[in-house]
Inverse folding.
């Protein structure tokens, strides 16, 4: 398999929009497309994330912002509270669900962020490879922790230091909170639609939930693994 294709179709009272996300199956990054005349709001130094390791003289445009251009362009007439029907096709499966615009748009933004080439979001590539559209908070927590622990197994196989305390995962999500909120500020500053800004805020709420869940509620999932523990 050379590429992964994820199709999103959004239908709401005022319109319909479709997106095809083409991802390189090996690098798990967006297929490169020639983009001319990128808008100023995608410049790296325009509301650049405080924790961004990139430099504008080498990378003039923010990879995450560039990945969001189609979403920002196509949802200009959408209100955050609009109800949408979202149809997602991937790996021969089709998932259809109704959701608010902010939640629906958050789902596609999460995919684009992970595969955009942003060095802060690259850790979420495995979750995109096995994408679960419109995942609940509990599903996101379970998937994120499982992904991280599998990564620790591969580190162990590579004779690298492993983290069984999940402290590293908490730190990853703290960094993502900075990225999400700065992107929301970027979109707001360029006059982005309320639905796009609110979707970013909702994405950040999920990012905030992970460290909290590790601290306080991960134990609630322990019963699911009793057969492994007993």
């Amino acid at each position: 398999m050379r590429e992964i294709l994820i199709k999103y179709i959004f239908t709401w009272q005022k319109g319909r929009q479709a997106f095809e996300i083409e991802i390189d199956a090996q690098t798990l990054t967006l297929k490169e497309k020639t983009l001319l005349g990128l808008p100023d709001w995608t410049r790296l130094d325009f509301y650049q994330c405080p924790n961004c390791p990139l430099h504008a003289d080498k990378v003039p445009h923010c990879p995450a912002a560039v990945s969001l251009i189609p979403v920002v362009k196509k949802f200009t007439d959408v209100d955050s509270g609009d109800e949408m029907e979202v149809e997602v096709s991937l790996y021969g499966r089709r998932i259809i669900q109704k959701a608010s615009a902010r939640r629906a748009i958050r789902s596609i933004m999460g995919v684009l962020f992970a595969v955009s080439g942003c060095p802060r979001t690259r850790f979420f590539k495995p979750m995109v490879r096995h994408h679960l559209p419109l995942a609940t908070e509990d599903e996101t927590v379970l998937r994120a922790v499982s992904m991280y622990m599998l990564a620790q197994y591969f580190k162990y196989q590579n004779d690298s230091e492993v983290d069984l305390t999940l402290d590293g995962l908490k730190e990853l999500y703290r960094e993502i909170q900075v990225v999400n909120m700065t992107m929301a500020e970027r979109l707001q500053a360029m006059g982005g639609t309320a639905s796009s800004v609110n979707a970013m805020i909702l994405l950040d709420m999920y990012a905030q939930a992970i460290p909290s869940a590790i601290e306080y509620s991960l134990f609630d999932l322990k019963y699911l693994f009793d057969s492994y523990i007993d």
About this structure: The first strand starts at residue 3 and ends at 12. Residues 12 and 84 are 5 Å apart (CA to CA). The helical segments are 63-67, 69-74, 101-115, 125-129, 137-157, 167-189, 194-217, 226-229. The chain is about 45% helix and 15% strand.
